[in-house]
Amino acid sequence: MKSFEQLVKEYYDPAPKEGVGSLLFEMVEVQLADKITPGEEFNKALEIVEKEGYTYDLPRFNVIRIRSVERVDVMDKMSKMLNPMGYEHHDDGSTLGRLQRIDRKAGSVYILFKPPFGTRAADIGAYEEEKFVKMAKEIAGDRIEATSAGSGHGSDLKLSGPNGTLTIEVKTGISADFGQFRLRYDTGEGKWEPSTTSKFLENMGVFMPIYEKYVNDYVQENYMMTEPYDERFQLRDLMNADRESVVGKVITGLKRTPTTGEFKRQLEAEWFSGKTDKKIDFPFEMISNYYADKGDRFIQLGSRGLYALNTADAEEFGIPLFSDSGLQASVRLRLKPSMGTNSATSFNVAIKIRGKLENSSLNLRSREDLEKIISKII
Prior knowledge:
11 helices, seven-stranded antiparallel beta sheet, 17 strands, about 375 residues, about 25% strand
């Protein structure tokens, strides 16, 4: 007999219906000829994972999911070991992307790199920054000052020496969200607007121009709201700036109810013309210019390496200019559940980057490259 806790969980979070889009469905659909049992290539990859002592689980017959606090390093190491076996990195929209070996005859294999349960992606980024700080201090000692922003304001990484200062934005991969925020509906004004969270205010310089020029018109015209509002909407008090008095009401998302998933699909059909989201392109220069305008000289992108945010640094360091990378940018509008199908759901806006990015000749993850960079300021 099932426990009370299990019955409650199944009541609020029923199993997803067939046809729901997801990475796992994508993996199955693109390889209908694959075997249903693990093949030889899968077993070879699994043997390597086990020999390295990584914590992992097997969510599907052809998927290995590695969990590690140091997943950036783990992915780099696994890439070097598996590339000769035909594995390639694929930007799938997740923070780091995945390694995959596509072979419809022998069986495709996918390797995912996730943080341990309870660890946020932001913590992984902060960990990466601290690694660079530590390595820089090992290289130059007291001759430089190396600091990281962590979850605070300013450049993610700052290296200062007698001959100058290097300010660097640090991201674990090009497929990572370049920021996201939420929307809310002001019932008094009868219009949509960004939720002014601390994270939104911190990144307002890039968020607001994108919202005003590329998002606002769409949501005002398509996110239709009529009174009386469905009771599954989450209605909250709108406080004034000093949070001392209530100045109105806002709808911030969907409540957790037994039918939230059903209501979400209904809204998607109405707001996104039957799709599950809406993607709107905008000029990539709005992203690259944002980091340059806030004082960053470089951006470090995981295994891709270091890119300059201005022409002078691109020429001096012999690295690509980020704004000339040929990447495309877009915003993705969707209703984002916090957990399961019927969990609390937000009106989410995520900035996405796509396209083929050529590797830079310098990478902060390489001690030799970091030494070259530091030599410019000492």
